[in-house]
Amino acid sequence: MARSKSAYSVPGKIGKIERHIIVVWVDNEAGVLARIAGLFSGRGYNIESLAVAEVDKKKHISRITIVTEGTPQVIEQINLQLKKLVPVHKVADFKRGEKDILFRELAMFKILGNTKKIEKVKKICKKFNPVILDKTKKSVVIQVTALRAEIDKLALDLKSLGLISTSRTGAVAMTKGSKIFS
Amino acid sequence: MPKLLSGAEIVFKSLEDQKVEYIFGYPGGAVLPIYDELKNHKSIKHILARHEQGAGHSAEGYARSSGKPGVLLVTSGPGATNAVTALTDAYMDSIPLVCISGQVPTHLIGTDAFQECDTTGITRPCTKHNWLVKDVNDLSKTLHLAFEVATTGRPGPVLVDIPKDIQFKKGKYKFFKNTLKKKLNGKSTHKISNSELDKFIDLIKKSTKPIFYTGGGVINSGPEASKYLRELVSLTGFPITSTLQGLGAYPGDDPQFLGMLGMHGTYEANNAMHDCDLMINIGARFDDRITGKVDEFSPGSKKIHVDIDPSSIGKNIKVDLAIISDVTELLKSLIKRFKEKNKNFLNSNKQKTSKWWEQIGKWREKKSLNFINSNKIIKPQHAVQRLYELTKNQDTFITTEVGQHQMWAAQHYKFNKPNRWMTSGGLGTMGYGLPAAIGVQIANPGKLVVDIAGEASVLMTMQEMSTAVQYRLPIKIFILNNEYMGMVRQWQELLHEKNYSESYTAALPDFVKLAESYGCVGIRAKTPGELDEKIKEMISIDRPVIFDCVVDKAENCFPMIPSGKPHNQMILGPEEEEEISDEGKILV
Question: What percent of chain B clears pLDDT 90, i.e. is strictly above it?
Fold first, then answer.
């Protein structure tokens, strides 16, 4: 950028953008999701997907899984800023593509078509733990669990086979083996 | 079974247990039960502001000058929204505030009731945390937690929103202490390891061109921190510069002090920051007014950063050694360790840094704070200098508004003690200084409190003069009156071809008559010849004073770093203005 004589400095070099999955344990209280979402929007961070549910009924702890993108500096800030929030207990962060982490998204597809078409659909979905949740003569609702890119591709492939509605969750994540996030 | 108290009683019981002496506020429908209870609590005095923003800045001034949290009491809806500027200001400058707001009764929340607003929603991004209390039995715990959050770690504002029905309801009271299970913002309990200290000391020993760069964190850490800072600076013999918020932590008239750094900092401070080989940042946050263009910020230096807030580290500038700690704790252990191992450091080091001091001496010769004085018209810098000379022998507290006068105050008024300088740095809130002075005077009765003001800023919260008169607070409003929004005018002159778009105030009040109408004293000085006498008169009056100091309308604030430039390319004065190129106006 050109030289500036403004009251603000010009932007510096921008680092490489990485995709991270950030897991946050929070008190499940009123407004907690707004605090997290507000932190992201207020500081110009990005939420690609979000999954939230209470995981400890007794202590009222919710686990939030956020997929986000940013430079290493931004990712570090996201982690540190999240830790400052009062209802946040802990934060775990890992890079998309790390080997010892599992993650999954769930999707439901509603497909219109005859039995023949639906058989075809089942075949395409076979690799992704398909479950038929509802079936009529003219339609089927099928649930799959897979990675984000896989679901993207499935949705594309199913379009020609009568896909009329898609519903997807954000990603959830867990470590492999005996260790847990800390 | 313990006695049940009403919500309003619980509020006061909590304030009493938190040893609160003053609350700044403004009543309204949704806080009436709390105001009704006020009469039963003699140890707590309420200061009635004229606008909730004023109450908020007063609470800030009280907190900054006393080291105690400021308490603010406002009603729902407009009461809360008016407080938002003050809360944001406190958030940016790390000032502990507890704001209690009334809310419409719980059964009306969400119905767009009269004077309802989503207070916790609106204040979420400008508080460390906030709470809407829906059960009276949660109230005492919430209030005590609020004080704890506001005052621990990096201090800041919090808000507790209390619906009117909760203020009436009866519930249990309990005094909760240390309810925060986890440590917020890397609190002082972080154990500093010897290896961290040794790394720190090693960097100090290796350096030939060192500089201390200290900030508001030293002030927030308490008076002890300033004491240790002075000791460390004296032990090492290193030069020191300070941010706007850090002024007073180190004596402004000490030879090792290079003056303030940053956009309007001194030539020597900024050049030393640029050329140093070791930068020791203690309690400052690499703000954009300090760093300028980050890629060219002090390119050759190793950097140490001490901060209580982990998220401050690495946010703007990468550092070589980061220590998350309270400043007092760190300095105390550092000095101890340093003394154990380096008894003769100062002597051996003098030689090592002698060239550096020589270079600093050359920069100093530029006398970057100089200005061309006049015997016909009062130069604003001269006015601040005279104010300093005539008040330096007494313990004086200075607040400011925002703009040129603020920078001139920072450059020309020398502070020797912490907590004597209250200014809106992060948010840059015009209208901060007058109400802040009220809070400062409340916390420091009998002391001289001066708001160095601009006429445009001070009009934004001028109504608070009425508060000063009501409580007999002899604050001095020292207005450098140039009839312009001076800093806006300066930027327009330098960047926008002197198109002074809307920066001139064509119909200003007569400040002397205005003072009289408020029931305080008005003084006007028009010539340099009468300035000293008038300032002395102002100081001698034991009542609030508005001082209309008529100054040069065209004076600009130098030196300055034009943005996008590194620290070693400052403009020193008007003769160099031509050097500024024409680009980059979009970012102003």
Answer: 86
CA distances (Å), B154 to each of A127, B15, B60, B289, B417, in order?
51, 21, 15, 20, 21
Q: Is residue B277 within 8 Å of B300, Cβ to Cβ?
A: yes
Mean pLDDT of chain A: 91
> Is B194-365 assigned to CATH 3.40.50.1220?
yes
CB B142 within 8 A of CB B131: yes
ipTM (interface predicted TM)? 0.89
Q: How many helices (H) and strands (E) does chain A have?
A: 4, 9
**DSSP letter (8 states) at residue B125:** G
pTM above 0.80, yes or no: yes
pLDDT digits (tens, 9 = 90+) for A67-118: 999 999 999 999 999 999 999 999 999 888 888 899 899 999 999 998 888 8
pLDDT in tens, B60-71: 999 999 999 999
Compute the nearest-CA separation of A145 from chain B (Å): 36
Is residue B331 within 8 A of residue B339, CB to CB? The reply is no
Query: What are the Cα distances from residue B286, in Å, to B113, B214, B242, B316, B453?
Result: 44, 10, 12, 6, 27
pLDDT in tens, B281-339: 999 999 988 888 888 899 999 999 999 999 999 899 999 999 999 999 999 999 999 98
Closest C-alpha among B50, B51, B41, B49 to residue B20: B41
Q: What is the pLDDT of residue B189?
A: 52
What's chain B's average pLDDT?
93
What tokens were used for A35? 């605090």
What part of B 312-371 touches A (C-beta under 8 Å)? 313-315
Domains along chain A with CATH numbers: 18-95 (3.30.70.260), 101-174 (3.30.70.1150)
Q: Which residues of B touch A12 (CB under 8 A)?
A: 293-295
Could you tell me which chain A residue has the CA closest to the CA of B560? A7
Domain B5-171, architecture per CATH: 3-Layer(aba) Sandwich (3.40)
State how far the Cα of B153 lies from the Cα of B170, in Å rounded to an integer: 33
- Whole-angstrom distance, CA of residue B88 vs CA of residue B275: 35
Angle at A140 between CA A135 and CA A146, to 5 degrees: 120
| Distance in angstroms (rounded) separating the CA atoms of residues B268 and A107 | 63
Cβ-based contacts of A86 with chain B (< 8 Å): 128-129, 149, 180, 184
Q: What local confidence, expressed as pLDDT, does residue B586 receive?
A: 38
Cβ-based contacts of A30 with chain B (< 8 Å): 132
The residues with which B525 forms a beta bridge, in sequence order, are B549
Which regions of chain B carry the CATH code 3.40.50.970? 5-171, 380-550
H/E run at residue B341:
helix B327-341
pLDDT of B588 strictly over 70: no
* CATH 3.40.50.1220 residue spans of chain B: 194-365
For chain B, give me the number of helices (H) and strands (E)? Answer: 23, 20
**CATH no., domain B380-550:** 3.40.50.970
CA distance B456 to B488: 11
Say yes or no: B179 contacts chain A, CB-CB below 8 A: no
The 10s digit of each residue's pLDDT in B71-113 is 999 999 999 999 999 999 999 999 999 999 999 999 999 999 9
3-state helix, strand, coil in chain B (%, to 5): 45, 15, 40
Measure the CA–CA gap between B224 and A118, rounded to whole angstroms.
76
Q: Which residues of chain A fall below pLDDT 50?
A: 1-3
Per DSSP (E only), the strands in B308-369 are: 321-324
Q: How many Cβ pairs closer than 8 A exist between chain A and B?
A: 93
Angstrom distances, CA of residue A22 to CA of A52, A182, B53, B129: 12, 12, 38, 22
- Residues of B marked active site are found at 52, 114-115, 164, 487
